[in-house]
Design goal:
Helices cover about 25% and strands about 15% of the residues. By secondary structure, it is of the alpha/beta class. The chain contains 16 helices and 21 strands. The chain is globular. The strands form five sheets. The chain has an eight-stranded parallel β-sheet. α7 runs parallel beside α8 (about 270-285). The structure holds 1-O-alpha-D-glucopyranosyl-D-fructose (TEU). The site of 1-O-alpha-D-glucopyranosyl-D-fructose has 16 residues, from loops. 1-O-alpha-D-glucopyranosyl-D-fructose binds near residues 187, 224, 302 and 363.
């Protein structure tokens, strides 16, 4: 019966064989401040990560991506860099970074590090020099300084609103004490935007890439990759920068030259691509003789439709781009079918792998999003007085989503703690909040701290084993004991063991290189597809996103189930199965 269904399928992606690791890799995002603390100060650090790399090897991922650990005043969690080529003392030393990379490689894990090219910290020596120098000086020219409008220059040079809320401009006081020019910052005022038209900015960042490549990293995650070039004249644009919602092309035309769905003069300008072509040449310098594409670039670009994103991963640019259209999709089978089809088709246009991601350090954790009354809605943080996610339902859906995500061909990203089923912390007291958008929106948005709470490793230790002293830079909910690694390891029904099994099967069956075909004839609320690798048996995936149980096909052999199947003939609501 299953066989017949596969034969009458709708193939949307063909299988392939590859020796390029990033085409099929599962990449685990480590948020260094929250992963593991070795020195007891309550902030995670690089030695803490190194000591816990066995956890990632046992989980079965291929690579880790480290969010920034560079010198930083931490006004935006380290996405405000003072020195791109040094480790902040909070996280350790360069020697610690070397040790981490070496240990990861010993375990067969690749290492991707973050690069933050759009802006520096306001405490970066370049910005301090720019403040000390006069208007029109070469020092100012490395950033986006402009005179204000109005008689006294008292009005912002344009009306852009920063991504984190409030105007994207801050006025400085000149060295002589008079009110002076304004500088542009698409994020916090502590993050001045660089001028990417300046050759020194370009040269310096390429040297930073070489610095880390020499230390052995396997690639870079490029922060706000779509923001580096701004439209000439910095024209007005009243709308607050909204990041992509579901990034499906309205007409599904698959035209790489189709315009952006949400054009903004600060984002997705054509000029960015030339930068990534030259970065790609830098990475290629580090390929061993006879090998190609051993190091990878991944774009963090909130652009839509998917064809706009595909422009970042053309053959001479980056290798991957995060699929935020997928991340933003609500709990709806038809919407997932559209975004998956569209993503695969757009990536196939340029010969790049599709990527899949449900959680990261910028969004409410996916089990909590899927547990909201409007499942999949993506608020910027959740307060205790907001409608609360249903924890059990959210986790059930979260596991079901992970199960269909890990069955999709291409590369997938996991965010630290999701393998434990961690929910968002929805009751953080305001006094401990640190994310800049909480302050910039005057508390209208709770912000991103709730997904950055230190991980629980050991149920009965202080701080759940995050740190030897029990200190944690953000408080952990007391109920998190049940999510601790040691409470889940070896427990067959646990979320941790479910992730391990899914990753083991994904690797063994070669699903990352599989083809994909939609299976007709299922209820609208079911995502039904076949993943068929170039060789080997492949699987049928059924994800029931509805609230009604459905009959499973006869003779189906269940390889993986995201939840218990009390009756082997029934697929419960909010459950995904992989069938042989
Ligand atoms: O994020 C870019 C970005 O656009 C996010 O701010 C995202 O839109 C927002 O969080 C959605 O809620 C990157 C980093 O991932 C983020 O942590 C940084 O704050 C930001 O760049 C500035 O570097």
């Amino acid at each position: 019966m299953l066989q017949n269904r596969v034969m009458t399928t709708d193939r949307v992606h063909e299988p392939f064989v590859t020796d390029e690791w990033w085409r099929t890799a599962v990449i685990y995002q480590v948020y260094p401040r929250s992963f593991a603390d070795s020195d007891g100060d309550g902030h995670g650090d690089l030695p803490g990560i190194t000591a816990r790399l066995d956890h990632l090897a046992a989980l079965g991922v291929d690579a880790l991506w480290l969010s920034p650990f560079y010198r930083s005043p931490m006004k935006d969690g380290g996405y405000d860099v003072i020195d791109y080529r040094d480790v902040d003392p909070l996280f350790g030393t360069l020697a610690d970074a070397d040790a981490l990379i070496a240990r990861a490689h010993e375990l067969g894990l690749r290492v991707i590090v973050d690069v933050v090219p759009n802006h520096t910290s306001a405490q970066h020596p370049w910005f301090e020099a720019a403040l000390a120098a006069p208007p029109g000086s070469p020092e100012r020219d490395r950033y986006l300084f402009r005179d204000g409008k109005g008689e006294q220059g008292q009005v912002e040079p344009n009306n852009w609103i920063s991504v984190l809320g409030a105007p994207a401009w801050t006025r400085i006081t000149e060295a002589d004490g008079t009110p002076g020019q304004w500088y542009c910052h698409l994020f916090d005022a502590s993050q001045p935007d660089l001028n990417w038209a300046h050759p020194k900015v370009r040269a310096e960042m390429e040297e930073t890439l070489r610095f880390w490549l020499r230390r052995g990293v396997d690639g870079f995650r490029v922060d706000v990759a779509h923001a580096l070039i701004k439209a000439d004249g910095l024209p007005d644009h009243a709308k607050r920068v909204e990041m992509a919602s579901a990034g499906v092309a309205a007409d599904a035309s698959l035209d790489l030259d189709a315009p952006s769905a949400d054009p903004h003069p600060a984002f997705d300008q054509d000029g960015v691509h030339e930068i990534y072509r030259s970065w790609r040449r830098v990475l290629d310098e580090f390929d061993p003789p006879g090998e190609r594409h051993t190091r990878a670039l991944v774009a963090e670009a909130w652009v839509s439709p998917e064809t706009r994103l595909a422009r970042y991963i053309r053959p001479d640019e980056m290798q991957q781009a995060f699929n935020f259209g997928f991340l933003c999709t609500k709990w709806d089978a038809a919407a997932y079918r559209r975004i998956i089809t569209e993503s695969l088709a757009s990536c196939d246009l340029v010969g790049a792998p599709a990527t899949w991601v449900l959680s990261n350090h910028d969004v409410v954790r996916h089990p909590s999003r899927f547990g909201l009354p409007d499942p999949g809605f993506r608020p910027n943080g959740i307060y205790a007085h907001d409608p609360q996610p249903d924890e059990a339902l959210g986790l059930r859906r979260g596991r079901a989503a992970t199960a269909f995500m890990l069955a999709l061909p291409g590369s997938a990203y996991l965010y630290n703690g999701e393998e434990l089923g961690l929910p968002e912390h929805c009751a953080l007291p305001d006094e401990v909040r640190q994310a800049p958008e909480f302050f910039r929106t005057e508390g209208k948005e709770a912000g991103r701290d709730g997904c950055r709470v230190p991980l629980p490793w050991a149920a009965s230790e202080p701080g759940f084993g995050f740190s030897p002293t029990g200190r944690t830079w953000l408080p952990q909910p007391v109920e998190w004991a049940k999510y601790a690694v040691d409470a889940q390891a070896g427990v067959a029904t646990s979320t941790l063991e479910f992730y391990r099994e899914a990753l083991r099967l994904r690797r063994r069956l070669g699903l990352g290189g599989g083809g994909l075909a939609w299976l007709p004839g299922w209820d609208d609320k079911v995502l039904a597809f076949s993943n068929f690798p170039a060789s080997g048996p492949g699987i049928t995936v059924l994800a029931n996103l509805g609230d009604t149980p459905l009959p499973l096909p006869e003779c189906a052999k269940v390889l993986l189930a995201s939840a218990d199947l009390p009756n082997p003939e029934i697929l419960p609501a909010n459950t995904t199965v992989w069938l042989a």
